[in-house]
């Protein structure tokens, strides 16, 4: 699983039939780059994930990839590589709070 922030959405009018009705989100992984860090930093890359929960722009989410994503999408034969499986309220690392949703 990875933590990521929702950056936006993708609209695709033509897509694989198994993807009809799914919402696509652009997410950017979040990283902590030092032991003293008190906040997440945005990673350099983005990915597109299927939204299974109704996440919105700016939300911090949990994303699974690969075979776990296909299972989370309720169809092991879906052409899915990333799925949002959680909307994060708070993250604590080594007794430091590094994220708390508004």
- In the CATH hierarchy, what is the class? Mainly Beta
Query: Which CATH architecture is right?
Result: Beta Barrel
Gyration radius over CA = 14 Å
**The CATH topology is what?**
OB fold (Dihydrolipoamide Acetyltransferase, E2P)
Q: Helical segment tally?
A: 1
Q: Strand sequence of the main sheet, in spatial order? A: 1-2-4-6-5
What does this structure look like?
Strand 7 and strand 8 form a beta hairpin. The protein has a single domain (2-100), classed as OB fold (Dihydrolipoamide Acetyltransferase, E2P) (Beta Barrel), CATH 2.40.50. The strands form 2 sheets. Strands 1-2-4-6-5 form a 5-stranded mixed β-barrel. The mean pLDDT is 86. It has one helix at 67-72, and strands spanning 2-10, 23-31, 41-42, 47-51, 60-65, 82-87, 90-93, 96-100. It is mainly beta. It is elongated. It contains 1 helix and 8 strands.
Short characterization:
This protein has 102 residues and is mainly β.
Question: Layout of helices and strands, plus pairs?
Answer:
Blueprint: E1 2-10, E2 23-31, E3 41-42, E4 47-51, E5 60-65, H1 67-72, E6 82-87, E7 90-93, E8 96-100
Parallel strand pairs: 4-6
Antiparallel strand pairs: 1-2, 1-5, 2-3, 2-4, 5-6, 7-8
